[in-house]
Amino acid sequence: MRRRRAAGTASETRGSTMHGTGATSSSKRSRVLLVTHHYPPEHGAPQRRWDTLTPRLMDAGVDVAVLAPPPHYPSGRLQDAAADHRPGSVSLGRHGERVVRTRFRPHAADLLSRTVDQAVAAASAVVLGLRHFRQRAERPDVVVGTVPGIPSMFAAWLLARLLHARLVIEMRDAWPDLIEPSGVLDARRSATSRALAGARALVHRAVTRLQARADAVVTTTETFAQVLLERGVRRVAVVRNGTSFQPLTTDDAAGLSDDGGAPPARPLRVVYAGTVGRAQDLQSVVRAAAQVTRRGLRLDVRIVGAGARVPFLEDLVAELDAPVTFVGSVPHDEIRRYYAWADTVVVSLRAWKPLEWTVPSKLYEVMASGAYATACVAGEAAALVQRSGAGSVVPPGDVDALTGLWSGWAASGDVPVADPRAAEWVAQNADDDTLAARYLDLLHELTGPDAR
User: Fold this and answer.
1) Residue 293, C-beta contacts closer than 8 angstroms, at least 6 positions apart
2) What is the mean pLDDT of residues 60-79?
3) How far apart are CA 372 and CA 366, in angstroms?
4) Among 69, 163, 300, 430, fewest CB within 10 Å belongs to which?
5) Residue ranges of the alpha helices (H) in 32-144?
């Protein structure tokens, strides 16, 4: 039975514009303090989100200040030793926002090391936030804490309390629900892990309680918004991730290979571009690729990106003799070439229940490009692909189904084409101006004269 949509979610069909809700009649500008672990000049989905929101909010009368560590994602090491990136420095970002750099701890790829880094940055954010934003002239009206990482939301909560500001928690993923299925605190591994499992339960309760106490929680999907409302969160707003990706052109694939005709005259070309982590389940992609070649069919899979699972996947490719090449990280503009070269672009998530409540930001990019998606996803993301004609959906982790899909295309050479409705949906629902307008609506609800 279809559940009735809860009244607390923000409508995605509101139709507000930056001009309609942004400019205020008053000369007083409101102030937002963002507490985040990821910020430009780093590259990634969280960084891009606020790199597009910030200038639009500032143009609409909102001053934005940021507490963030120096750029060190994804390597865990300082990427740029410029003076304005050093811990404790205060500088202007490229949109005129005030950026205060917190301390951080260089980290490796493991969970514990990354968590310690996030905790160090969050503690430093509280200290520096009180130092720089306690005076009335600098005090924020709203403090926004983004997840990941989880410690940022607790730092934002404490700053909001101490600075007498409204609190917005931004949940880009379904935390804390992802803690358990991810297995990162698996109680079966060791006595230490059993102790960590107890900590996992405490973190789950703490995060859920903080979400309920926030003045508002921002999610990127309607499904997770519904989950939070059913848990008693007072106000939930849906502000999806956006993309500036434009439709591909025939010139975008230049330089990657000769034209070679179409399958089966040449191998079926498959690309994955993004984070190579546990949640992406790329081992299923590798295993399916190996099975396709065992059927005597030709396949060329390229994994573009970096992440903790690369060494494991490289070993798996060697073990299975799979037709998979690891490209590594490339500039974002170069992703277009790989999309244009490919017959299909993979969007993949593990078969974890909380991931059914999410939509990968990469999916919007693929839809906007016009590339045909191989979508190894479930839940809201799968429904979006099927409804828009953006690609073919395969159940997450179903290696046989993925093998069958690619084998059919490789044998026949009949590779589908994405429905134009997919790009149209992105233009209407994941446009940067529209998303900023929704965020601005929320800020006005929290700080306007009718706010309680």
Assistant:
1) 299, 321, 322, 323
2) 93
3) 8
4) 163
5) 45-59, 111-133
